[in-house]
Sequence to fold (277 residues):
Amino acid sequence: MARAITVLDFWVADGNGTTENHLIKYNSDRGITSVQLIGSGWPSDLIRIGTDIYGIDTAFKQLYTLNPDTGQTTYLGSPTVYGGLGALAYDAANDILYSVDWDPGSVGSDLITFDRTTGAATFEQTLIISPPFNHLRHVRGLAYNTADNLLYASSVTVGNIYSVDPVTGDVNYVTTPTNDLAGIYDELTFFNGDLYAPYSYFQSGSQWVQIRLIDLATGLTTDYGPPIQDVSAHSLIVNSVPSGPILIPVPATAWLGVALLGGLSAAGVVRKRRQAV
Ligand SMILES: [Ca+2]
Ligand SMILES: [Ca+2]
Fold:
């Protein structure tokens, strides 16, 4: 019998203030740590491909690889011509790395593919919802679903999730995830067949992130882990999700003083409670 997984572990980027351009690492046993992203401009998505971590940088318009232990970034090739790259998604079966350009200077979002060796970007198609044949605006979250071979894209201005068929170009509305705190879903990531997202919102003068599971059939969400203060979560990598009971968020004030203001120590400051689901 397989041993049950009990640890929730994920990474988001980036932080704000003292953790600007940091990779924020959450582990339900060890708490929160962070590492500075060396050479980063705007870490707008990260994705794991095999044993490597790739990132997209909106400010530098480029693909890079990341050493998550040291924070060192290595840029691939030359800057692209795309001014609004903010998401990555990977089709492992066909080894295709997708991105989206949401350049605010254009009318809509364009699907892009990357050559992971040269860093060169290729235009694939403009994302148009059919019907009503409107451009899909401001896509900053993208994920590839191996269950149906479709891309899932989140528009931060509209607040909806759409499916994108990368073969036919069809774009269809899927759902509107819960938006109870007037926030945005700045990234999407499938992990073990489930869709997770960093829900980003402002409260009490700070920007917060809450990792959420999204039910694509209903749009209803389930919180995973605690809300984390001072994060602008453009990126999400999920490393481990408990199999069975989920971690119930504890009041952030119970540990943020130590975990964030005290320099993101890895002390076991996150008190946990468990509840059957
Ligand atoms: Ca993604
Ligand atoms: Ca993003």
